[in-house]
Amino acid sequence: GFHDLALTSSGAVWSWGQGGLGALGHGDHQGQWQPTKIAAFAGQSVVAVSAGHEHSLALTGNGAVWSWGEGGEGELGHGDPQIQLLPKKVEAFAGQRVVAVSAALVHSLALTADGSVWSWGYGLYGRLGHGDGQAQCQPTKVEALAGQRAIAVWAGDGHSLAITADGSVWSWGFGE
After folding, report:
1. Cα separation values, 112 from 20, 93, 102, 126, 162, Å
2. Chain mean position to CA 114
3. What pTM was computed for the model?
4. Over 90: is that where the pLDDT of 67 sits?
């Protein structure tokens, strides 16, 4: 999209670029010409980040998912289409340990420790993997992968990918 994220070895998150719709996580709509540390993660250790088009995801060492920025299509996973100017924990994962996240144009993916794939956001073209084009404002398990143990996920603009423990690659969404 229009912004970038960086993760330091100490677990700090930095962002820069266009700040419209809160994508930078600094509590405002201001753009940043240079990397600026996201203060909301002070005292936490972030282990992974992913920048979508106008939203961002972070994964903390305790397996919690945080999101911020544009949420108009449900891509933040908070159950509503609101903009989040600061990182906010995705409560739908309470009691679960997430091990990977991926943000795309208008949807997001997560992988839990048990190998389950979860998706949320804009469902057009089947990019969420739920057998329809419906939007999901909260993370929903991709049931088509039940019985498979995913080890990696990636969200593209109109499609999604997962790799399973047996080395198989699974894809869904816009196939043109």
Report:
1. 30, 9, 12, 21, 12
2. 18
3. 0.96
4. yes
